[in-house]
Amino acid sequence: MHEVNKSSTDENILRMLLSMFLPYWPLFAILTPLFLIGAWGYLKTTTPIYEAAATLIIKDENKGVNDPKVMEAMNPFDSKKNS
Predict the structure, then answer these.
(1) Distance from C-alpha of 22 to C-alpha of 45, rounded to nearest angstrom
(2) Strands (E), 1-82
(3) pTM flag (> 0.85)
């Protein structure tokens, strides 16, 4: 019996919401695409605030520097401070 009342309550809430917003459907139909086009235009015309750059060092086993001091200097996770 409780399930029937819950279903009835859900249906009443849905009908209430539809009766409140259904008369304004033309406004929603016009403003939604307008705001989406405006957001797209804003994102296309503004410059990004940040810029990202990266450098990737790939060690070739056949050639390159085998000096351990160079490899130690490139270690970003090293906890020792360079003097």
Answers:
(1) 35
(2) none
(3) no
Cα–Cα distance for residue pair 31/33, rounded to 1 Å: 6
Residues 6+ apart with CB under 8 A from 72: 78
In sequence order, what are the residues at sequence separation of 6 or more whose Cβ sits closer than 8 angstroms to the Cβ of residue 65?
71
Pull the structure tokens for residue 65. 């520097």
Q: Reduce the DSSP state of residue 24 to 3 states and report it.
A: helix
Q: What is the average pLDDT across 27-44?
A: 96
Q: Cβ of 43: how many Cβ atoms within 10 Å?
A: 9
Alpha helices in 1-83 (DSSP H): 2-21, 25-45, 68-73
**Coil, strand or helix at 63:** coil
What's the confidence (pLDDT) of residue 80?
Answer: 60
Average pLDDT over residues 53-78: 70
